[in-house]
Amino acid sequence: MPSLRPIWRLLRVVEHLLTGLVITLGIALGRRLGWRACQLPAIVRWWHARLCRALGIQVEALGQPTPNALLVANHVSWLDVPILGSRGQIGFLSKAEVKDWPLIGWMAGVAGTLFIARGANQAGDLIRQIAERISWGGRIVVFPEGTTTDGTRLRRFHPRLFGAGQLGGGLVQPVALRYGIDSAPDQVAPFIGDDALVPHLIRLARHPGLRAQIRFLPPLDGSALSRRQISEHCRRAIGESLGVDLSDTSCLPVHRGSGQPSTSAATSFSEAA
Questions:
Q1: What's the predicted TM-score (pTM) here?
Q2: Separation CA 148–CA 80 (nearest Å)
């Protein structure tokens, strides 16, 4: 008899999305009435953590996210967002196309996600916005590879938005993400190439138990360093933590099949580089 676990997980994800919709509608209505959503960061963190539980993902975190910090992470999947978001009150930079995604884009905007548009010359404004949030004690995650990989390597880090870590007295904290229980990355987690969200969700639902590990590495004071120096430090620290080869600095994407690289639900960081 086939296992009912995948069906149960998918039903939980649907219920979770509907719950998120109701909460987001309430927050949006409250804003129209002039209410302040003081508990919004805690609600967003709860929502991310509950999504991880619905998919049966076990998250192990080593270290803690640093307040007043630009968090710099390697990028494997759209799962990076809920997995990181479940560990603290953390904001994200996303490609502008996500705003047009049904339901998810609207919810992300209400939750405070920053968006970057292709070719819009937004880097200066985004650097100031990110630095401002950091100066208030916030944390913002960027994925400087600009696209996702299969977890076996790191692409070149695009340095321009690291300027946010040089302003406002903030710090820059490298974050290493790994999926799997040993040195070989789990190949169900990556969201790359021509992957689509629904088939990927089905693969995740069928997984016996995905494990994700987050290593929050020592933060760096970038105020006296160049953006390129910060970029190189973060890439080296993450690469050493993951035990991956750092010799490949090309901008060529990692493909699954014949599709184009996915920028998933995170950031098209390279467009501001």
A1: 0.85
A2: 10
